Amino acid sequence: MTLAINRRSLLTAMGAGTGIGLAPAAMAAPALKTATFNHGVASGDPSANGAVLWTRATVAEDATGDVPLKWHVAASAEGKPLKSGKITATAAADHTAKLEVEGLKPATDYWYWFSTKDGTTSPKGRFRTLPVGKTDKVVIALASCQLYPGGFFNAYADMAAQERLDAVLHLGDYIYEYGAAGYGTDIGKKIGRLPDPAHEIVTLDDYRRRHAQAKADPQLQAAHARAAFICVWDDHETANDAWIGGAENHDPAKEGDWRARKAAALQAYFEWMPIRAPKTGSDPAAIYRSFEFGDLATLAMVETRLLGRSEQIASKGAAPDAAQVAAMLAARNDPSREMLGAAQMQWLESLFAASVKASKPWQLLGNQVVMARVPGPDLKLALGDEKFEAMLAKMPEAYRGMIAQSQAAFKAGMPFNMDAWDGYPPARERLYAMLRKIGANPLAFAGDSHAAWANDLHDDSGTRVGAEFGATAITSPSYGSLLPGLGKIIAAQSPEVAFCDQDTKGYTMVTITPDAAVADFVTVSTVYTPQFTRGVAARYEARKGAALKALS
Q1: Minimum mean pLDDT among 14-28, 81-95, 432-446, 535-549: which range?
Q2: What is the pTM of this model?
Q3: DSSP code at position 124
Q4: Percentages helix, strand, coil for the chain, rounded to the nearest 5?
Q5: pLDDT at 29
Q6: Which of 3, 215, 323, 512 is placed for a possible disulfide with 39 were both Cys, Cβ 3.0 to 4.6 Å?
Q7: Cα separation, 281 vs 287, whole angstroms
Q8: How far apart, in whole angstroms, are the C-alpha atoms of residue 54 and residue 273?
Q9: Cα separation of 182 and 98, whole Å?
Q10: How many CB atoms lie within 10 A of CB 347?
Q11: Closest Cα to residue 65, out of 33, 99, 20, 38?
Q12: d(Cα 121, Cα 139) in Å, to the nearest integer?
């Protein structure tokens, strides 16, 4: 059985707590017989018997008709199709097309492609179905934060070259909303990677164009063609520091209603990403879902931005004075503050309880932001007075003031990042209590921070709950570019942080077996040219009931 997935307009009725509204049917335009596949192919949301397959038919800018396509799935790159069918790349969906193919064998590699009526063929992609029953090993890659102007997607080129890769977990910030004068574009100007459109994106057409620009990148296309992606958004797919009712980087006076902007962003996301669309009538933000890796692990992909999150007490980079910090810390401890929301928490508890009951060794949590407690680093303590002053002297005046303010705020007790779980301690404690209650062995994954992490997670009583591996950015700037070696200082001063790399770009490769989960923190030597050297910054091993262990 094969299910066609069509994403109609979400714009008409996606307010807070509302369902999906369907746009009125438009007059059918003549079908287009020819197109190219400039954005490659992608697969996602694998199951034991199939996956979502995606492509986009590129047509002339003034073309308004739909594009009929054929899809094919084979058991090898050069094999004859085992399954074929028809799908339409509709003009209403920006000429994207996706379907869910079923009826395949578990734990098996398959190849797929699309073709037009005139015989134009897309590149071929590859995905692996999920295992069933006894499973000795799963290999997944963690990716996050791919600012297009920030550099070349070299991490994806390396990922695509891997011999074994069962799936890619993309933890968010697939695109960024900023314009050509915004965040990270100083690099983009030097290497010829400015964002399209040039202004900050707000409308449906804007978000579609930004997704199209990302998917036109050959390195990203190679990674999508290599393995199925399991995706969730973070904040920049809508706007910086998003929460349920708005975002730090959304000004209603200038950019209109937040619900309309969110609706446009999510419609473009569901059109352009290889992800199952929400069920008709459900909240489109409710993309939390699960994946079973045989008898080895249950993966829960949770949503921590648009569905339940309370507004941040302070935005990233805030540097309040001591009196303000005290008020902020009191406010963040309000037990009503949420990250996941009650419905998602109930779903997660039921899912993981069933996984524990089935004796699965691992409960994996695909989560956007860092979960561990990370106190703000004391740079003067780490460097000494002389080196600290020398470091400040080399910086522009504006940065000196910011660092001085942040150091004062950290000493007053402000954590490193209030946009992470550290800004929501009661919600984190509720999550930890649930995981303890059901006897889970959780391994959390995190993106967002532009840094690599290996963390031991503890509740308020000091009891170890589980472990966390975080992926650094594909390209997005890190604090280490301003303060080299910052990650080592954070790890030295943070009881829960075993490893932190704020300096390099790359991704995290995680190999999971019944007894252990090993993270290789893969680095690329540069993102300023497409030529790079691969490295591994560190390897860490997680085992149930034991602190993280450095393997190299």
Answers
A1: 14-28
A2: 0.93
A3: P
A4: 25, 25, 45
A5: 63
A6: 215
A7: 13
A8: 7
A9: 32
A10: 18
A11: 33
A12: 30
- SS3 assignment, position 55: strand
**Contact of 71 with 123, CB cutoff 8 Å:** no
SS3 per residue for 127-180: EECCCCCCCCCEEEEEECCCCHHHCCCHHHHHHHCCCCCCEEEECCCCCCCCCC
To the nearest 10 degrees (0 to 180), the angle between helices 218-226 and 204-215 is 80
Q: How far apart are CA 331 and CA 314, in angstroms?
A: 10
| pLDDT tens figures, 211-270 | 999 999 999 999 999 999 999 999 999 999 999 999 999 999 999 999 999 999 999 999
Pairing of strands 67-74, 81-89: antiparallel
Please write down the HEC assignment for all residues of 213-281. Answer: HHHCCHHHHHHHHHCCEEECCCCCCCCCCEECCEECCCCHHHHCCHHHHHHHHHHHHHHHCCCCCCCCC
Radius of gyration of the chain (CA): 23
Please state, for a pLDDT cut of 90, what percent of the chain lies above it: 84
Two tokens, residue 506: 């790359």
Per-residue tokens: 129: 């179905």
pLDDT, residue 61, reads 83
CA–CA distance, 446 with 504 (Å, rounded to integer)? 16
Sign of CA dihedral 395, 400, 402, 407: positive
CA distances from 119 to 55, 114, 176 (A): 16, 10, 35
How many other C-beta atoms are found inside a 10 Å radius of the C-beta of residue 81?
15
Cα 110 to chain centroid distance, Å, stands at: 24
Q: Which residues touch 43 (CB under 8 Å, ≥6 apart)?
A: 51, 52, 53, 54, 112, 125, 126, 127, 224, 227, 228, 229, 274
Ramachandran bin of 175, using left for φ above 0, alpha for ψ from -120 to 50, beta for the remaining angles: beta
Helix (H, G, I), strand (E, B) or coil at 73: strand
- Residue 128: both structure tokens together: 């692996």
Alpha-helix residue ranges (DSSP H) falling in 373-485: 379-383, 385-393, 397-411, 425-438
Could you give the CA distance from residue 95 to residue 209 in angstroms, rounded to a whole number?
Answer: 12
Tell me the β-bridge partners of 109: 128
Say how many CA atoms lie within 13 Å of 12 toward its Cβ.
8
For 213-251, letters b (16+ CB in 10 Å) and e give bbbbbebbbbbbbbbbbbbbbbbbbbbbbbbbebbbbbe
Tokens 């000429």 identify what position? 95
Is the pLDDT confidence value at 426 over 70? yes
